[in-house]
Each structure stands twice: as structure tokens, then as C-alpha cells.
Amino acid sequence: MGKIAKIEYFRVPPRWLFVKITDDSGAAGWGEASLEGHTQAVEGCLDAWAERYLGLEANDIEHIWQLSYRGGFYRGGPVLMSALSGIDIALWDLKARNLNVPIYELLGGKVRNKLKVYAWIGGDRPSDVEIQAKARQSQGFTAVKMNATEDVAWLDSPSSLDACVARVSAVRSLGLDVGVDFHGRLHKPMAKQLAARLAPLHPLFIEEPLLSENLPGIAQLSSSGGGTTGSIPIALGERLHSRWDVRPFLEAGCVDILQPDVCHVGGISEMRRIAAAAETYDVALAPHCPLGPLALAACVQVDAVSANFAIQEMSLGIHYNNIKDRDLTSYTRNPEVWDVDKGYISLPTGPGLGIEVDEEEVRKFSVDSKAWVSPFFTGPGGEFREW
């Protein structure tokens, strides 16, 4: 096996950052280091690390992971861990391709042949949501996710929650399971009310009911005195960047479904460890992935070997993917791996990540590609609200 000879990255629309690692034999692996709204920061980290990696044995994935994580005074956080994710995923892809096996074969082997999946729907009115939900059904999905609200004040009128309840009810009436993403936009006075109102509709889960910086508040919502709110599974994890970030939530018993993002936690290596840790607390794994095909393919490799895997997010047709008509099926030559049948996708069987990157397309769309800028909300008084 070879030594690392070259590291490249490609900023591509709609908001993704791909990483390519080539060894001295000319073999290559691909990863994804997307960090929505902070692309330039991750690129800077990759630039700083590039010389450190050159000449290292590409096979020594864990050694390189530890070097990246422990080889500087500061560690963790979204930027460093997203850069590490891109490197780690690419190294796993390279190693598995050199051995001509899927990555999951190197992680202990699969425990399933297909994976349950869900996709996003948008819309502000029940009629809009119903149309989009039916479209997802026609694509083969049996579960969807939607945002709960737009911007909400710290303490707002209870009527500001009416639209969410109506939209969830409309989707449930079609026979679909629905996850409701609070997105950390609500603060505790409003999150408590919305969770209680949604409980009779039996959502699949509520996601980020509060920002993960508020662990005690999430624990309160989770217990709710054993009442109706406490019966809803709580999902979170996209803003936790390592097993050390995850640990307090597992210890507090306030999360039912863990949603690590393979692009933000240090790649396949760390997500595998997080999944195993969650299993010891009887917590399900449902990786967060509103990103590109490389990120999803990396998630799938961990899903395949994790006993506690529950469901996988897919960005197929998500509203972000409207920049230059790029979608989950872009930049690859075998988009059929993402075909959905009765709520499931089949486990890819190809080498490495199981997808074939169209490098010509990647290079073409990376030319003068603009970094995606995260929007934000302001209230009527000019104050910032959570986005």
C-alpha cells in the first residue's frame, strides 16, 4: 500500500466540500468535509494540515486520526472535526478500494442488507405539505421530516405554533411517519408547549427541541414528569462533534435517537465509536446527513455495521439543493444506489464508499464556486433569533 502523495479539496454547489487523497501509486479515495456556512474555515484547516500528511502511510487511518486530533493544543469543535472528517472518509475509501471491498467489510461486516431512510419536505401550509408528502410517497419513502417553525420569540403567542400542528397532522393523515425538527429555534417556554401539542400526533421524533448547549433543559423536556411530552422520542446530535461531546447526553439519559453527522464528528472512525457508545445506553443511531453523496455513502458504511441503527436521513431533493440544479445524484456515475423502495435503500456493494465519483463534473463545478452563506432570522425589534 502507498504513502499519501497529494491532498486536494473541491468546493462544489450547492454547499459541499469534497476531499480527494491520492497515494504514491496513483490510487485515490474521496471524502466530504462540508460544514454548512463555514467552508472557508475548513479549507484553511485542510491547507494547514496538508504538509503534515504527505508521506504518511495511507493505510494508517487511526494513526492519522489521532495525529489530527491530538497533534495540536486545541482540539474538537466543528471546524477541526469537519476537516478531519474529510480526511478520514477519504482514507477509508482509499484503503477499501485498494482491497476491493466495501468499507463496511473492514468495520466488522454488515448486519443488514438494506437501510430505512427518510427525506425532507418543506412548505408553510398544510396543503403545500400534503403535496410534497405525496411526492415523497411516490419516490418510495414511508417517513419524512419537516421543520417545526420559522423564527419564534423567546416567549411567543401560542398561536405561532398552530401551523406546525396542522402540517404534522396533514402528513400523518397520509399514513407517513414524520420527524419534526425544532432546529433549536425554540426556547424552553415555547418548546414545552409545542412538544405537548404534538404528542397526540405521535411523531417519529422531535429533533433538537432545544439547542444542545442547554442539556438541563433537554433533560427536563425528556422527562416531563412522565407526561405526554416525555413520551416523544428526542433526537439530537448534529451539533455535537466527538464522543466527548456526546457523552454527557448519554449519561443524562435525555436523548433517545442520536444523530451524529459524519462530516462534523471526525468521519467514519469517530462515528463508529459514537454508535457503539450509544448502543451501551440503548440509544438508537440515526445519522444526520442533509449533505452530499460522499457524506451519505460514509454514513451508510457505519449504518451497515451498527446494531442500533434506526433510520438514515437523505438529502434527495432537499430545498438547499437548488443551486445550479445540484442534488444527491450529482457528481457520481452510479446514482441508482440511492433508489428508494418501500422506505429502504439497498446496501451498496461496490468497493470503498460504494459510489463512483465523476471527477470531471466535480472539477467543472468547483471552478469559481461560491461558499454557501448561512441565513439568519431577526425579530420585529431587530434582535437576532435562532435559525
Automatic annotation (TrEMBL):
Q: Does the keyword Metal-binding apply?
A: yes
The record's GO molecular-function terms, alphabetically, read: galactonate dehydratase activity; metal ion binding
Alphabetical UniProt keywords? Lyase, Magnesium, Metal-binding
What is the required cofactor set for this protein?
Mg(2+)
Spell out the Pfam families in the cross-references.
MR_MLE_C, MR_MLE_N
Q: Where is the Mandelate racemase/muconate lactonizing enzyme C-terminal domain?
A: 126-228
Q: Which domain of life is it from?
A: Eukaryota
For this protein, the record's NCBIfam families field holds:
PRK14017.1
Name the record gives this protein: Mandelate racemase/muconate lactonizing protein-like protein
Source organism: Microdochium trichocladiopsis
